[in-house]
Specification:
This is Sulfatase-like hydrolase/transferase. Keywords: Membrane, Transmembrane, Transmembrane helix. It comes from Micromonospora halotolerans. The protein has 681 residues and is α/β, with parallel strands linked by helices. The chain is built from 21 helices and 20 strands. The strands form 5 sheets. A 7-stranded mixed sheet has the order 5-6-2-7-8-3-9, sandwiched between helices. The chain has a 7-stranded mixed sheet with strand order 17-16-19-20-14-15-18. Helix 1 packs parallel to helix 8, helix 3 packs antiparallel against helix 8 and helix 6 packs across helix 7. The longest helix is centred in the first third of the chain and has 35 residues. The radius of gyration is 31 Å and the shape is globular.
């Protein structure tokens, strides 16, 4: 009998190679640290750097400490999460694939970093910068793959996001929002005499010269309500702000002190100010915009504009796109400070429709800032003295209003400086100033209707101006040095209780004089030292002006009432009717479709026309823009940029438009004044 054949015993299953697993996890952890270091340089550092220097961003949106800390946590942690998930999934892939994927990630992050560095240290922009950044990222990734020392350095640098968060929370100007100090500001001491109600409006980005006519008086034809205000108040015509930046300018106005430190415009950093000085005796109704100088113990905080973590994340996302883009941003960060409209805020009508039929308040109120509506609603006599304060971002850019109040749409990439562009920017500014004049008129009407006008101390001024001088447009140091008459000088009107006759005072007024003057008029003794002096004292002997681009570093320049810029002669074609003309050439109008169905009752008109012309059209060629057969503007073709050979025209007269379909025509103006109609697309 044959022996049974036995199968060899099966080997027991192999134990898992824990060393390999641990090594895989350690490797992925190291790669994650490298990615975290690069994400910190590409995302966390630039975002927290800009936000840390912009406490006004958080103050404008009334962010709480929790909102800010959650935003910072998201900025520091969220961008690294996708790389952590990618690393976890990569554990199931072969080791060479994981290494190749990590090299790709490092290369992309280094290329993104190269875009930001290249934008600061090279003149490259757009596609050339992207190509250079990709090449730099590829070279750096190859070096990272070859030399392990680079990986070690990156892993140590993974502490960077924590360092950036620490600097933001403890050392940046925005730290005042996160770690506010006590806000027990000193209260003023009531003296003998009346304590009248105070109505104070601080406008924003309004040069005095924009209001002036050739006779150095308010141009009553263009700005009748500012002229009305001047006719019943004391106009300090030689008044200057102390800084071109609101977070420095407004605290100086409300504390009586020149800017000394680059700190947040927050009650914890400026505990002694107008609101605390009057708060012991006065009720405070304050509508601040990009400051928060009135402490919660003295002021109810408004519900507008939009608040909460959602808006902070959304606006930070926009900022990240600007920071990481291979092109320069043409958007002023302050342009994001947009007031909610009354419709957005869900407010009911606070005021009846004015009798003036030209002021279509009933149809344009959707464009009225909710903050202004709330301010108007509070202008009522009260048993206790009351301070009514409004900081209104008008006529500050973005410029979107016609003098009638109608809104128009404008692209974000329009320049504000350079040939042709600066003239358009000033025209848009003046149009919005016309709308601001209507808001001043509505304020005066409300004050008179409620009986508050005669009782109150009324102050209307602006924190700073802005330059529209070619090559020196804006409010930066270059504009201050080359156009101080447009940046520093601002309107300053003060109507005493019972005052009915206007007068002009050309003393050397500086905005640190504002709080001392208000305290003097309200018979309140301010218990801290101020740099300013009340208007009841003798004027300064020195005519020089002090201005601060950087706190603690005053600039000086000669004083004296500035002369308005010479007005541009109106083009004789504007207002004329165009008949039949020959056609010659083409043009593209970006918003041509908006003319097909115009509804003025909605309060929005296609009043800004922009587009391009063929490259064959020479720079400076004049174009006449007509609506329904009437020329509304004549503008030049500007030198080409990345968007082509462009033109843009503002049509400030809304009488050009009719309900329904409107005809837009564009004409090339010859040197002899002849017109050739361009075919539009």
């Amino acid at each position: 009998m044959a022996e049974d054949t036995l199968a060899p015993p099966k080997a027991p299953p192999a134990a898992p190679d824990r060393t390999r697993v641990r090594g895989g996890w350690r490797g992925e952890a190291g790669r994650l640290l490298e990615a975290a270091a690069l994400v910190g340089l590409v995302v966390t550092q630039p975002l927290l750097d800009v936000l840390g220097r912009s406490p006004d961003f958080f103050l404008f949106h009334r962010a709480t400490r929790t909102d800010v800390l959650l935003l910072v946590a998201l900025i520091a942690i969220a961008p690294t999460v996708p790389f952590a998930l990618l690393g976890a999934l990569g554990l199931i892939a072969p080791r060479p694939a994981r290494a190749a994927l990590h090299t790709l990630v490092v290369g992309l992050l280094l290329a993104a970093l190269a875009v930001q560095v290249g934008r600061h240290v090279t003149p490259l922009r757009g596609v050339p910068l992207l190509l250079a950044a990709v090449a730099a990222g590829a070279a750096a990734a190859a070096a990272h793959r070859r030399w392990r020392a680079i990986a070690r350095v990156l892993r140590v640098a993974a502490v960077g996001p924590l360092v950036f968060v620490g600097l933001f929370v403890f050392a940046s100007p925005a730290s005042a929002v996160v770690l506010p100090r006590g806000h027990g500001g000193a209260a003023g001491v009531a003296g003998a005499g009346a304590h009248p109600p105070v109505v104070m409006i601080v406008l924003d980005e309004l040069p005095l010269v924009s209001l002036l006519g050739p006779d150095h008086r308010i141009d009553a034809a263009r700005y009748p309500h500012f002229a009305e205000l001047a006719a019943g108040s004391t106009w300090y015509r030689n008044a200057t702000g102390v800084s071109g930046w609101t977070p420095y300018a407004l605290p100086a106005m409300l504390t009586g002190r020149y800017p000394a430190e680059p700190i947040a415009p927050h009650y914890s950093r400026y505990p002694d100010n107008l609101f605390t000085a009057l708060g012991g005796l006065y009720d405070i109704k304050a509508e601040e915009s990009i400051t928060r100088l009135c402490p919660p113990s003295r002021c109810e905080q408004p519900t507008s504009p939009e608040q909460g973590l959602g808006v902070l994340v959304r606006e930070s996302g926009k900022l990240l796109r600007q920071v990481t883009a291979p092109v320069d941003s043409r958007i002023d960060p302050e342009d994001s400070y947009r007031e909610q409209t009354r419709a957005e805020a869900g407010l009911d009508a606070a005021e009846p429709v004015p009798n003036d039929p030209k002021f279509r308040w009933d149809t344009l109120d959707d464009n009225q800032p909710a903050r202004f509506t709330t301010f108007l609603a509070g202008l009522r006599p009260a048993d206790r003295p009351t301070l009514h304060f409004l900081h209104l971002l008008m006529p500050h850019s973005p410029w979107v209003h016609l003098p009638s109040g109608a809104r128009y749409v404008a692209p974000e990439d329009l320049h504000s400086d350079g040939t042709g562009w600066v003239d358009l920017a000033r025209a848009r500014h003046l149009a919005q100033l016309g709308y601001t004049d209507r808001l001043i008129g509505e304020t005066l009407r409300t004050l008179r209707a409620t009986g508050l006008y005669d009782q109150a101390l009324v102050v209307v001024t602006a924190d700073h101006g802005v330059s529209f001088r070619k090559d020196w447009q804006g409010r930066g140091l270059d504009a201050i040095n080359h156009a101080p008459d447009q940046v520093a000088w601002v309107p300053m009107f003060l109507k005493e209780p019972g005052q009915r006759t206007g007068r002009v005072d050309d003393r050397n007024w500086q905005h640190v004089d504002l709080l001392p003057t208000i305290a003097d008029e309200t018979h309140i003794r301010v218990p801290w030292r101020m740099d300013g002096r009340p208007a009841s004292q003798a004027p300064r002997d020195n005519a020089d002006k002090r201005f601060y681009d950087t706190p603690g570093q005053p600039l000086t320049f000669p004083g004296g009432v500035p002369s308005p810029p010479a007005p541009a002669a109106p083009d004789p074609l504007v207002g004329t009717t165009v008949g039949a003309t020959p056609s010659e050439g083409t043009a593209t109008v970006a918003n041509l479709a908006a003319f097909r169905d115009v509804d003025p009752a909605r309060g929005e008109l296609p009043a800004l026309v922009w587009g391009t012309v063929p490259a064959s059209v020479p720079d400076g060629t004049r174009l006449a823009v007509a609506v329904n057969g009437t020329v509304g503007a004549v503008v030049p073709v500007v030198p080409p940029d990345s968007a082509g050979r462009r033109f843009a025209a503002l049509l400030p007269d809304d009488r050009l438009f009719a309900a329904g379909a409107n005809r837009l025509d564009l004409y090339r103006v010859g040197t002899d004044g002849s017109l050739r109609r361009l075919t539009l697309s």
